[in-house]
Amino acid sequence: MKAVILAGGYANRLRSVTNNGEIAKTLLPIEAEGKCQPILYFLLDKIKDLKNVDEIIVVVNDMYYSQIKEACKKYKIKTKFTIVSDGSNGPDEAKGANFAILTANKAISKESQDTILVMASDNYFQFDLNKFVDKYNEISSSVCEPINMVISKVYPDSAREFIAKNFGILNIGYDKQIISLDEKPGIENLKTNNVSLALYLFNRLDLNKIVEYMQQNNNDKKKRDSLGYFINYTIHNSPTYTYEIDGEFYDIGTPEEYQKMKPKHTTNDIYNKNTEI
C-alpha cells in the first residue's frame, strides 16, 4: 500500500498563525495525546502504525519543499519517503487537491496495483487507520471488484451551518455505498450531516483516472481544485463506500480551529522554523 499526504496548499486562511505564510501549515505544532509536534508528525504516526505501507508520498509545492523535506528527514521511520512538488511557488499559482493527486499518481510506478491511502495534511484524528484498511479489504473481497472508500463523520444538527460551508457532504445509499458528494453545498442545499473527512482509499485503476478527469475539467476551477468532485467522478467507475468514525477530528483550516489544538505552553502563534523538530 502507498500513503499519500497532500501538503501543496498555501493556507491563505491561516496566514495570521503562519507568520504570513512563512511556515507550511502542516508544520504548525499542535498538542494532543501527550505530545507537542507538527501536524505532519501526527499523520506520520498514524501511517507508521499501518501494516504493509511500503512508501509515503508527500506532495508539496516549491515554496515549502525544503521545509517539509527536512521535517520528513527528521522523522524516524524505515518506510521510503518520496517528496514531490506540484510545481507551484505561491498562492497565486496554487494547483488544488486534484492536481496534487495527479502529481502523486505520476510518482507511483505504473506497474504498481497497490491500494492508495490519500489524506489531507492539515487534519488531526484519533481513530485507528488499520480498522479503515481492514474494512476496505473486507468489502473489496466480498463484492469481488475494485472499490474506493471515504472516511466520514456524522455531525450534530447544531453544526449544520458550519459543515455546509466547510466540508463535502455525503449522500449515502444502501449498504453504506455513496450516491454522491455535495462539495460545500451551503445550508440551503444541505441534505445530510454526513461529512467527508478528506481521507480516502483508492484502487489504482480509479486513481489513474485522475489524468482523464483533469483533462476534462482543467478550465473549471471548482472541479479542478476540489477532491470531492473527483470522488463523484470515480463513483461512476467503482462502488464507493463510506467508513463512519467517531472520536475527535479537527480540520485545521482556520485560526479558530488551530486555537483548539495550539500548544498551551507556547505564547507564539507560529512554529519557529529554526527550532529542531
Q: How would you characterize the overall build of this protein?
A:
The chain is an alpha/beta fold and 277 residues long. It has 2 domains: 1-124, Spore Coat Polysaccharide Biosynthesis Protein SpsA, Chain A (Alpha-Beta Complex); 125-198 and 231-249, Spore Coat Polysaccharide Biosynthesis Protein SpsA, Chain A (Alpha-Beta Complex), CATH 3.90.550. The protein is 31% helix and 25% strand. The chain is built from 10 helices and 13 strands. The protein has helices at 39-48, 65-74, 97-107, 129-143, 160-166, 204-207, 210-217, 221-225, 227-235, 255-261, and strands spanning 2-6, 29-32, 35-38, 55-60, 80-85, 116-120, 123-125, 148-154, 168-172, 178-183, 194-202, 240-244, 249-251. Strands 1, 4, 5, 6, 8, 9, 10, 11 and 12 form a 9-stranded mixed sheet that branches. A two-stranded antiparallel ribbon has the order 2-3. Strands 7-13 form a two-stranded antiparallel sheet. Helix 2 links the parallel strand 4 (55-60) and strand 5 (80-85). The longest helix has 15 residues, at 129-143. The model is unreliable at 267-277 (pLDDT under 50).
